[in-house]
């Protein structure tokens, strides 16, 4: 991507552009600073954010920032959880391949935290601080960092919640397509994580029924402690279309519910997350 | 971004009416808007050719995107139908069970789009799976993995072109299931490859592909000519 060419194109349409983002040199410098922290893939987003700052009415991005801070809170939760789990090493995660998987997920979640922390200021916002967590959820998961089965159960709940949380906000950030794009790209990574965690639970024998996808509102053998994560996942009607038996074909209610993941609103997600947040 | 699916002719009309600075506010919310605007300058007006058995036309706006998704779901459903009908040698019970699930999910997606698009739906496509050896585990799982990763990148890339919030949410409901499939199939190919760097970058972001890129890749397996004006 040739950044100079993009800046020149903007200059042609709006010669006073740099009065909005300081001088051209300042703009390039500011952009270079951001560029150092972000990968190439994130650069268009940062550029979009800069233009946003220059042209957007200040009140339009407020709710987008709120949503990104909400996402950041959830990413802090996941990143901290996996980091603490991976630190336990084979004492918690006996299988070497599983440990590698947890380390990979940990790296992704930490990357999400850093990405959001870099993007939020570009939209004129302030990233929220990392909360203090209690991953035992006040004793519900007391052995979360010493019992692998408990650890993976909490991991599954976090990933499936994360997928629903991002999905629930997509329509609320449509006004900013660069933010929407990034959120979509995080959303599907959370779903990859969820799939892998569920497969690991199955292959470790922690559940003989759990699948990489969500069947009905089933917790995959974890039980009532995580039931709110799956509330509404048993939906089989999409946009008024009944998916069970659709087209006269033998699509079961289970398959119909599995085929569509359901969004979850911010309030319900925060109610789940708050069980793990001390302050 | 709301304006992206406004047909180009309307877009251009808007551009004439808006003062320069107002236009930038309108187009400058992000680089994708910028790209769309740059591309709009060189695009021609949509033209509709009548679909026949040999070709289909996706259409424009949200209908075009939904037909595009419908085409991809047709491809996946046809593939998994064959996989389950003629399972590869040595398939395990769990693999067959999961492949059957995936087949049903893709059929559900396909039939959903068909029903939702109603009279605006493209015709059923014809496929060419001659490059796939359905009796070989490695051939089947490699193809399945490629289809699922392609599907994830396709939905991720198409989301920003949707104008209707409900459609965006629906696409979101489907893409995460495709991502669950993708991760599972990648694990079948090789352990711990579910988020490898060929699909997830160092910021932890999944890949996106434009419809035009996806259609070129998918065309290997699709006999029917797909006429697309999508980006």
UniProtKB/TrEMBL annotation, chain A:
Superkingdom of source: Bacteria
Pfam families referenced in this protein's UniProt entry, alphabetically: Ferritin_2 (PF13668)
InterPro entries named in the record: Ferritin-like, Ferritin-like_SF
Gene3D superfamilies associated with the record: 1.20.1260.10
CDD domains: Ferritin_like
Protein's name in the database: Ferritin-like domain-containing protein
Organism this protein belongs to: Thermoflavifilum thermophilum
From TrEMBL, chain B:
Keywords: Membrane, Transmembrane, Transmembrane helix
Pfam family for this entry, one: Ferritin_2
InterPro entries named in the record: Ferritin-like_SF
Keyword presence, Transmembrane: yes
Membrane-crossing segments per the record: 23-40
Name of the protein: Ferritin-like domain-containing protein
Lineage per the UniProt record: Bacteria, Pseudomonadati, Bacteroidota, Chitinophagia, Chitinophagales
